[in-house]
Amino acid sequence: MKKKIISIVINCFFVLLVAGTLVPFIYMVLTSFKQSYVTIDYSMDITKFNLKNYITIFRNYHFVLYFSNSVIVVFFACILNGLFSSMAGFGFAKKRFAGRDQIFFIFLMTLMVPAQVTMIPVFVIMKKLQWINTYQALFLPIINAFGVFLMRQFMLNIPDELLEAAKIDGSSEFRTFTHIVLPMTKPALLSLTIFTFITCWNDFLWPLVIITEGNMNTLTLALSKLHGNYSTNYGLVMAGATLSFLPPFILYMVLQKKFVQGVTLSGMKG
After folding, report:
1. Residue 140, domain CATH
2. What's the number of domains the chain is made of?
3. Is residue 45 part of a domain?
4. Which of 81, 149, 222, 260 has the fewest CB atoms nearer than 10 Å to its CB?
5. If you write DSSP's letter for every residue of 35-61 in order, what string do you get?
6. Statement: residue 87 has pLDDT above 70
7. Would 6 be classed as within a structural domain?
8. CA 107 to CA 103: how far, in whole Å?
9. How many other C-beta atoms can be found within 10 angstroms of the C-beta atom of residue 19?
10. Are the C-beta atoms of residues 65 and 225 closer than 8 Å to each other?
11. Which distant-in-sequence residues (6+ apart) come within 8 Å of 248 by Cβ?
């Protein structure tokens, strides 16, 4: 009986914890359907709810343009990060060469360097390449050592005998990688895609630094412009935040099983 009571108390605690985390999102969605000029407004008169904020965003703030910019940047960031990370991870996991572990360790050390430290050097490089206000300047810096680490850890679980059998059968390195390795690492690739998507989609500081033209703004930069100089319609801000929140949320809900599987299996062998 005592154990049952403890179990009920623990379950109630977690239910309250989950409910507490949902409150901000519920407040965001509900506020987006009304005009509110105060920071905190708990008046929820359903009769006053309307779609004016969403209509204003699409009509007056070029939301479709900024949304498409974010989609383009995220798309190429996910593709390139998945491609380069999987190739580098395959090399570190399955290829034997002098100094492999030492190079990988040094590579991982770059994760300890804050992005703010390298922001100025990267900006200078982009300026020398004349890539200011371009898509490539937005998505290329997303590629980092984390993706390589994730893919390398997952590929360590692939049996060497399988790759050796493919080599004996006459399979080339490229064919082995594309037809055997990549299909087996699909959970890790999906996990990396979700990480990259969320990181790139929500990035604000780097686009703020590298973008100076209005037509190249990403969605996060556009949301910052919803604040007025003298008064702010927080319902409009919440509408923009809701629209920005939906794509990564939907992506995670669709791929959550593969995401958990990829993260779990990536840490099984080191």
Report:
1. 1.10.3720.10
2. 1
3. no
4. 260
5. ---SS------GGG--SHHHHHHHHHS
6. yes
7. no
8. 6
9. 10
10. no
11. 194, 197, 198, 201, 202
